[in-house]
Amino acid sequence: MTINRQWLLARRPQGDVRPDDFRLAEGAVPVPQDGDVLVRSLFFGFDASQRIWLTDDGGYMPPIMPGEAMRCMGIGQVVESRNPDYRPGDLVEGFMSWQDYCLVRADGPMPLRHLPQADYPISWNLGVFGVGGLTAYFGVADGLKVGPGDTVVVSAATGATGSLAGQIARARGAKKVIGIAGGPEKCRWIVEQAGYDAAIDYRNDDLGAKLKELAPEGVNAYFDNVGGDMLDELFLHMAPRGRILICGAMSSGYTDVKLQGPANYMRICTHQLTVQGILLFFYADQIPQGAAQLGQWVAEGRIHVEENRQHGFEKAPELLPTLFSGKAPGKLVLHIADPV
């Protein structure tokens, strides 16, 4: 435990994030102070929101500054602790960074979770039981309040969040679940693996025409991961008193926090729509409940878990841009090391 590999932000990205926006360095293993937990990295998770943290504003988190290690959600093993709630050897999940060893705290915006012994891969705690799965759960159950009889549409339906949102809607009794994705292979995956009733290929289909065909009485609940023109089109197809959940804006590339709003927003008035956002921070105290419900559905075979696992610390910078350029379905995770 003498060398600490780090991927540091070399410069603030302009436009699309690129691998050469980061530089590899070797630093000292940090020394924990009161309240700190020193963690050895086992897995890095990849989320589109990481791009927001690289802007000058940082979005809902402090911006990552040049010379700092890239922040991520990760899984690690406690090496040394100055917090009595964590002991060496414990497996934990929370905010980490692209380093072999990093200091984490339990008093941040999200809990530093102890990971249970389980018969599923530990990396699932970054996916179905992590930010993506929990955001999907609370977004569908609390934000959209999906229930029997609802017609639900999910955009970016092969992503870590979208691929689970539709399945959660189905588990809650939705009448029809429609996914939007790019390309015939992803659309086929949505139906055959994720259990959606239908898929719309936004690259090749007429989105408006397909929505009229698949949801002739209108969409009751829309889980929006894309924003932009797609959100604008969905406003035109919402049923009266429909609900829209704003989870992301992938179409923007997250290169700026200032985005143009929808042109068709008056549909909120004329159709009495409800539009709200979702941020997992607001559900921090409910995470155990959400994870338990997801675990039950997984055990019952009602949720298919898809993971895109890569290997090797050196790959971290090249994987981040793939979130915006068409990665494989499911949660993208990078395996760094095994627990001891």
Provide a descriptive summary of the structure in words:
This protein is of the alpha/beta class. It folds into two domains: 4-126 and 305-335, Quinone Oxidoreductase, Chain A, domain 1 (Alpha-Beta Complex); 131-281, NAD(P)-binding Rossmann-like Domain (Rossmann fold, 3-Layer(aba) Sandwich). Helix content is 22%, strand content 26%. The protein has nine helices and 15 strands. It has helices at residues 49-53, 131-143, 162-171, 184-192, 207-214, 228-235, 267-270, 287-299, 316-319, and strands at 4-9, 22-27, 36-45, 71-81, 91-97, 101-105, 113-114, 151-154, 176-181, 198-201, 219-224, 238-246, 274-277, 307-311, 331-335. Strands 3, 4, 5, 6, 7, 14 and 15 form a seven-stranded mixed beta sheet that branches. Helix 2 crosses helix 3 and helix 2 (131-143) crosses helix 8 (287-299). It is globular, with a radius of gyration of 20 Å. It starts with a strand and ends in a 5-residue tail after the last strand.
